[in-house]
Amino acid sequence: MKKIMIINGPNLNFLGIREKDVYGNDDYESICSYIKEKFSDKKVRIDILQSNSEGKLIDFLQSAYFRNFDGIVINPGAYTHYSYAILDAIKSISIPTVEVHLSNIHEREDFRKISVIASACIAQIYGKGKDGYVEAVELLIKDEN
């Protein structure tokens, strides 16, 4: 059984409340349930975590290393664009990591088009809403399907 950790960054707990025209109407809990349901019949364990704190996101990444997770899906929120600490944490754990964004970051403000963590990830998925998470997990477990 593969173990996948999904890490969500700042303000994602406000999905369904914030900028519905950008992020949609689904709230955070319904998105988490949706992801878990998609893999309920597969041999995969999915842990979903969220924090508004950069340090806590790094703690999650490091715990994935110590708990022998097979893959990570991360939506670092705004930290995507400037957190070299998260970049370093991803590089240090050597676990395949996929960067996910609900919205199409390349069709938004210029600063959102820049990801400082992309170079440490095996893929970047954006603009697919909650299905982007599903695609990321499928990528990480592809030899288990």
Automatic annotation (TrEMBL):
This is 3-dehydroquinate dehydratase. Its EC number is 4.2.1.10. GO terms for molecular function: 3-dehydroquinate dehydratase activity. It comes from Leptotrichia trevisanii. One of its GO terms (biological process) is quinate catabolic process. Homododecamer. InterPro entries: DHquinase_II (IPR001874), DHquinase_II_CS (IPR018509), DHquinase_II_sf (IPR036441). The keyword tRNA processing does not apply.
